[in-house]
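tokens incoming
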């Protein structure tokens, strides 16, 4: 945003994006604004909206997974105390499938370190020279 401040109008909806992203309740507003500006903005706004959306791709994925997990919680918490797991399971099946399909990836450069396989050999303790 700073790099394009000179070419971006102060009345552009894109100027609100940093503020929307500060609060989890307005993250959806940031997403909607970017989607609209990618198609309806002027040339500078379209290009900048596309760049920002690409940078925030993982954020959108995290928000989507969080909401799906929240749906699972609400289904379980709202279930009747007498409902058996067998009765609840079909209701959860579709939501669980959606969560599995949207698993979070590790951020670039933060892939989990693979454990090196080590083979420990038992060697007799060293004896002091005699």
């Amino acid at each position: 945003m700073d790099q394009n401040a000179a070419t971006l109008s102060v009345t552009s909806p894109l100027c609100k994006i940093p503020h929307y992203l500060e609060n989890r309740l307005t993250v959806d507003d940031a997403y909607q604004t970017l989607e609209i500006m990618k198609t309806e903005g002027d040339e500078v706004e379209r290009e900048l909206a596309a760049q920002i959306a690409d940078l925030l791709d993982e954020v959108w994925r995290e928000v989507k997974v969080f909401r799906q997990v929240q749906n699972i919680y609400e289904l379980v918490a709202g279930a009747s105390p007498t409902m058996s797991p067998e009765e609840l399971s079909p209701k959860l099946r579709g939501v669980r499938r959606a969560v599995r399909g949207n698993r979070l990836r590790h951020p670039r450069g933060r892939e989990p370190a693979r454990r090196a396989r080590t083979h420990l050999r038992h060697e007799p303790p060293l004896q002091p020279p005699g």
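note: The chain has a mean pLDDT of 79.
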